Amino acid sequence: MRDGRRLRGMPARTARTALAVLVSLSALASCSSIAPGDQSARSIHEIGTPLTDQDLAAWNIDIAPDGRGLPAGSGDVATGAHIFAAKCAACHGAHGEGGLGDQLVGGQGTLTSAKPKRTVGSYWPYATTLFDYIRRAMPYNAPESLSADEVYALSAFLLNQNGIVPANTRLDAASLPRVAMPNRGGFVADPRPGQL
Q: Sorted alphabetically, which keywords does the UniProt record give (predicted)?
């Protein structure tokens, strides 16, 4: 390629791209024969770092509908109201009515209307999904920065604002999965084995 030759019929830029792709595919093919966990692969290629169970645990933070994966901790509605005012209201409105961020409160009875409002209270099928989403994605400017206690408290506050739990509610890993969401029956179950 450096002496000006190209792949037959290709412009120089396209030929360079094709060569780069071929080199990459060749490298991948040489790695595909290496068994997972084979330490000799690291010494041969001098790339990568083996992952430990602790490394994986930091990324494995999903919460199942039945509560599997919920961490220890707890939070109540009153604490959640303070956290919401400090960390959420700027985007979602003082009462979860929406603003820069989505509306979180209200919308019950609108799903079959011409303008459905898909909120925590009207649309979401599981309270554990609320916890999972807040934990991994909120606040928008600092995702995964909230403690488990803060996420439980925010979940309790939002569920209360939607009329789903009373004002004296304290949620934890045992109680959160038992919260009956209004639209729980609005979704079709996955018929595949092993799915919820």
A: Heme, Iron, Metal-binding, Signal
Residue 15 or residue 155, greater confidence = 155
Q: Under DSSP, is residue 171 helix (H, G, I), strand (E, B) or coil?
A: strand
Q: What b/e sequence results for 101-111 when a residue is b if at least 16 CB atoms lie within 10 Å of its CB, and e otherwise?
A: bebbbbbbeee
- Going from N- to C-terminal start, the domains of the chain cover 1-50, 59-186
Length of the chain: 196
Band (4; pLDDT cuts 50, 70, 90): very low
Task: Name the token pair of 151.
Answer: 């996420």
Q: Say which residue the tokens 């009373």 belong to.
A: 166
Give the C-alpha separation, 28 to 40, whole Å. 16
Question: Is 0.85 topped by the overall pTM?
Answer: no
CATH 1.10.760.10 fits 59-186, yes or no: yes
